[in-house]
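Backbone Fold Data
Goal — fold tokens
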Amino acid sequence: MGVNTVKDGGGKPVTIERVEELMAFLQGQEIDGITCRWMPRLSSRAAFSVIYFLQEHMDLLPDHFEVCVRCRDLFDTEREGRFVERTGRHYCDGCD
């Protein structure tokens, strides 16, 4: 865990699993222990736009979580994948 590791309100590091849970919630999937009267139902692209905003503008999430342009899976760039500078696109290891 690095010096710049972002933590949630409970002091736990923000992991790929936590961001995947947020992505699922934003797409309308019910999450255990969360009761929400008006569930969001965003597309995967719109849900990741929210995550991107929380990463880049609000500094609430670490900025090393990306979506693969080919399979649309969320992945941690510190552990896998590659970025193609020429096109500005991210690919997970499965689509690399």
